[in-house]
Specification:
68% helix; heme; transmembrane; 387 residues; two-stranded antiparallel sheet; membrane; Cytochrome d ubiquinol oxidase subunit II; EC 1.10.3.-
């Protein structure tokens, strides 16, 4: 028996669908509070010292947290090539804005405190705000578009074509439902940033983070519930018609797909997936209560639970679809028709099994070493060695 045949093609596809979700959730759980702190920065810090306290709560970890973003992009490229091709083509301008924000962020961290000039530092503070708030919003907008279906199709030779003028690849993304999904994402990460600052800061920065974070938690829960209701009554879903092979070659055109009344039919077929939206709503409510009560560690954990539930609910509701096509449903990308080869998925899984635990252990060690609050005294006493 060839080694890679120890796991069937079908199982490997599902495993990589799960791993992709794990990487995206890992990014949201870690770099999510970095973006949240950035979005909160001008509001939790009114003086230069207060803003430096907020910045230095994420200063030692933000670079490591971005590893999850790189891993997620790499996983899409290697495990789901058609998804990579279509998403980077259709969402090109939005991704360019996100990458520009991620390029500005390290520059802002490094240069912000190099000059003792209020205008210089304020400009970089707003750059940190934009580099946190803009990606958080656009990630949600992208998810909203995927839920509704993306206007692409494949030619007979599997060349992907994204329909519409180039400027529509950005402006066209901003429809009402997608903007609502963006509000869910932005408010959720602001909530997460508030929970992080509650744990890592003290004094007035902590107090303001609690107040703003608690409001963001309520907005996130309300917007998420509204998005679910909208999906139930106003968003068409997709389903595969007839019999299909889950372990066959990757060719979207070999599947027959049609639109259905709603995505939420998945909860009738697989009732157990309801745990995901319950976690999302319950986690948001508990985060709000924890912020109002002044709890720290448990509040951050509840915030993570909310993020886990919200992101998981999207994947579980749409399964097996990864990116449906609104203009040609038959071109829709699913777990069963858009993966790399059997051997490629197996080799990648072996590499992941070896290196993922190392990344997790290193990350846990870093957070253990850096445990504790950042105070104004810490920044003042180490002014030339911290951000």
């Amino acid at each position: 028996m060839i080694l890679h045949e120890l796991l069937s093609y079908e199982i490997l596809r599902v495993l990589w669908w799960v791993l992709l979700g794990v990487l995206l959730i890992g990014f949201a759980l870690t770099d999510g509070f970095d973006m949240g702190v950035g979005a909160l920065l001008p509001f939790v810090g009114k003086t230069d010292l207060e803003r430096r306290v907020a910045i230095n709560t994420v200063g030692p970890v933000w670079e490591g947290n971005q590893v999850w973003f790189i891993l997620g992009g790499g996983a899409i490229f290697a495990a789901w090539p058609p998804l990579y091709a279509v998403s980077f083509s259709g969402f090109y301008l939005a991704m360019f804005v996100v990458l520009a924000a991620f390029i500005v962020r390290p520059v802002a961290f490094k240069y912000r405190s190099k000059r003792d000039d209020p205008r210089w530092r304020t400009a970089w503070d707003w750059a940190l705000f934009a580099s946190g708030a803009v990606p958080a919003l656009l990630f949600g907008v992208a998810v909203g578009n995927v839920i509704q279906g993306v206007p692409f199709h494949f030619t007979d030779d599997l060349h992907s074509i994204y329909e519409g003028a180039w400027y529509l690849k950005f402006i066209g993304l901003l429809d009402p439902f997608s903007i609502l999904a963006g509000v869910v994402s932005l408010s959720m990460l602001i909530m997460h940033g508030g929970a992080w600052l509650t744990l890592k800061a003290d004094g007035v920065v902590q107090s303001r983070a609690r107040s703003i974070g608690s409001v963001a938690a309520l907005v996130a829960v309300a917007a998420y519930a509204l998005a679910g209701l909208w999906m139930a009554v106003g968003i068409e879903g997709y389903r595969i018609v007839g019999d299909y092979v889950t372990g066959g070659p990757s060719n979207p055109l070999h599947f027959e797909v049609e639109k259905t009344a709603t995505w939420l039919a998945a909860y009738t077929d697989r009732p157990w997936i309801a745990i995901a939206p319950v976690m999302g709503i319950l986690g948001g409510v508990l985060t709000f209560l924890g912020l109002r009560a002044g709890r720290e560690v448990s509040t951050l954990l509840f915030s993570k639970m909310a993020i886990l539930g919200v992101i998981s609910s999207v994947g579980l509701t749409m399964f097996p679809f990864i990116m449906p096509s609104s203009s040609d449903p038959q071109s829709s990308l699913t777990v069963w028709n858009s993966s790399s080869s059997h051997l490629t998925l197996f080799i990648m899984l072996v590499v992941t099994v070896i290196f993922m635990p190392l990344i997790l252990m290193y990350t846990a060690w870093v957070y253990k070493v850096l445990w504790g609050k950042v105070t104004e005294a810490d920044v003042t006493d180490n002014s030339h060695s911290v951000y």
